[in-house]
Structure formats: C-alpha cells, structure tokens
Amino acid sequence: MTVTLPVAAFLPASTCPTNASGLRCYQExxxxxxxxxxxxRARGLVDRFGPMPAPTSALIDSLRxxxxxxxxxxxxxxxxxxxxVVIRLTLDHGLDLQSVAAQFRGITATPSQLHLAMxxxxxxxxxxxxxxxxxxxxxxxPVGAQNAHA
Length: 150
Fold this sequence. Notes:
Strand order of the largest sheet: 1-2-3-5-4
Mean pLDDT: 89
Low-confidence stretches: none
Order of helices and strands: EHHHEEHEEHH
Number of helices: 6
Radius of gyration: 18 Å
Strand content: 15-25%
C-alpha cells in the first residue's frame, strides 16, 4: 500500500538529535499497529524532546493515514496533482462508496476510488475511519445472510 501526501513528513534533528536515535524513532513509529500505539509513541517523543515540530506532526499524521488505510483495505492514498487526494480500493471491495462520499463535503466517488478535494481541511482520517468501520461491519455479516438477498 502506498501513501503519498503533499507534506514534509520527517524527524528533524531537533526531535532526534543523533542518527542512531532518529533511526530508532522511525523504526518504533513505523512498527505501530494501532492508532493508540502511535499516539503513545508520539507522546513519548514530546516527553523526550519537547514540542513536536510540524514535520514530525506530519510524519505522525502520515503514519496514522497508513494505519487507517490498511484497516480500510485501501490499495493507496495518494495526492492527485492539483486535484486533492484519492483513496484507491480494489474493484471488489463491496463497500458503498457513494454513501461514504455523501457523508463528507468535497468528496466524490467512483466504483473503486474516493476523491477528496483540496479546498479547506480535508477529512482524510474521518473518511478512512468510516471505510474501516464499514469493512469491519462487512466482515461480521454471516455468509448465508449475504446470499439470502441475492
């Protein structure tokens, strides 16, 4: 899965002053498997190094997007030059993307993509959380119930 967002996302020297500590910080952040764990690691960085600079915040946000996108079954979350951000899903995802798009301003849906406009604050994480919720709900539907309506 790919995540490419139009932000500078990294750990500046003020956050992790040595190469070894920077590498360790990157590895610990990248190894997070939940938002709660990522938030805990981010708080640890603040405790150790003080206020979080913008590039570090952007890195945490990018990693959060990666976690949420994986939980939603997304193939990628990518910047579309001059158009915003697109969430790409498989063709057989089985989700109602039109209903997801209707819940948020500035979003359009195609059969396998959600396009988020660049205007204002993009609701990327709430959209990914909603997709993840739908994926979890879909996995709880008994197989027989799916075939009963066919």
